Structure formats: C-alpha cells, structure tokens
Amino acid sequence: MGLVGLAVALGLGLPTTSAAPVRPGWAVVVDQESRSVFVLQSAEELMAYRRPDRLPVVWSWSADRAPDLAPAHSWSMPDEAKSRVRNGRRYLLTAASGGLVAAVDTATGRTYWAADTGGANPHSLELLPDGNVAVAASEGGWVRLYAASQGPRNTAHAAYPLPGAHGVHWDARTRQLWAVGTTRSPRSGWTARRPRRCSPPSAASRCRSGTGTTSRRCSPRRAGSG
Questions:
Q1: Which burial class, exposed, middle or buried, applies to 84 when counting CB atoms under 10 A from its CB (0-12, 13-18, 19+)?
Q2: By the 8 A CB rule, do 218 and 196 touch?
Q3: pLDDT for 39-95, tens place per residue?
Q4: 190 and which of 104, 107, 149, 195 could share a cystine (Cβ 3.0–4.6 Å)?
Q5: Rounded distance, CA 144 to CA 68, Å?
Q6: Contact predicate 132/146, CB 8 Å
C-alpha cells in the first residue's frame, strides 16, 4: 500500500535536514508500507514518489522507533497524519487502524500523548485547545474525548456513540468539535479535567430553535466510561 492521508501543512516549524527555509506547500503523509509519517518539501515532489528512500523528506516519525508505545500490532495500517499548533508548539497527530493514536512534539520527537484503542479502528484525532484529544473510531462506533492534558498515557475519556466514525475537526472560530460518521455529527463541550458527553439533540429542541442548526445537551460523564 502506498502513501495515503495527504494533508497540506503550511509553514511547518519542523527540524530540517538542510539549511533550506520552511516553505508553504509542504505536505504531511503516512506510508503504510514503511509504517512511517513523512513531512515532504512540496506536494509537487510527492507526485514523483517511488519509495521511502527517494522521498524529499524533511522530517519523519514512526512508532516503531518508540518501543514504549508497543507498536508491533497497534501501529499497523497508519491512516491519518496532520499538524496542529498549541501554545506555540507544533504537534504531529497520527492514527493507525491497528489501534494506536498519538500526538508527537515535532521539536523534540517526544510523545505528548498516546493510547492503544485495540480493535476500534481509529481513523482520526484532533488536539483541542485545553490539551485534550478527540478520537474517532469506525469499528468502535464512537468519538472519545481523552483527558490527554492530564498525562501522556492518560486513558480517562468521555464517549459519544457515532457509527462509522471517520473524522474529527476542531473549528477554532466557532469553538466546536465536529465529527464525521454514517449517521449524525456531534458538537461537544468539556473541561480539561473532566470531559463531558454530549447527547444528540431531540427533534423538539430542533423545532424550538426554528433553524436547521443542531443544538446540544451536555451532561457530566464519569471519566473512563463509554
């Protein structure tokens, strides 16, 4: 299987292998054959892809180089990689169908947070402003809000059922978390120490609003449940 999960990342502040400046248009990709994440110099050069040792690689990461993550089975079929900035630091976010999800500090290469979701088949994750991490998993049929801000291996979480969950994205403008699945999209709120679960809106609440906008009803959820 070749490169998948292309995402353009503008102005990446990553360590380079040469004196060349960071340029807009660099791309973050995952390669399932080599079980690696690569940052490439340009999307155009990606089209000339042959094999990993010929890629215009600026920075790379693989869970196979982090044995503390126990990657033998969990780091199989990586399927997403993207770049996020929080408090002036840039992080690589990556997920693998084998179960591993991780956020890595690109300046140090250290794992900010990671978890093994088992057979849930995670497809996407998002770093939230409070330092927590949202994860979407298709086989698990859920979106989880992990209390990543409380430790690099913290697995306490709140969960929202979403069959076929495939993507999560934080909208900084509206301060809402969006998720993609096969039925409906949740919006969610939380605190850093105690994530909250948001229940789907009732038909009555939608009717009262007089618009097609999905409303939310959030209630506290015990950490680690769901």
A1: middle
A2: yes
A3: 877 656 656 665 555 667 788 899 999 888 989 899 999 999 998 999 999 999 999
A4: 195
A5: 23
A6: yes
Residues linked to residue 17 through DSSP beta bridges, in sequence order: none
- Return phi, psi of residue 16, to 5°: -110, 165
Strand duo 3-8 + 167-171: pairing: unpaired
Q: Which residues of 186-224 are buried (b: 16+ CB within 10 A; e: fewer)?
A: bbbebeeeebebbebbeeeeeeeeeeeeeeeeeeebebe
Spatial strand order of the sheet with 89-96 comes to 78-86, 89-96, 100-105, 111-116
Beta carbons within 10 angstroms of residue 48's beta carbon? 9
Rg, Å, the chain Cα set: 18
> Which pair of structure tokens corresponds to residue 140?
């698990």
Matching residue, tokens 């890595």: 104
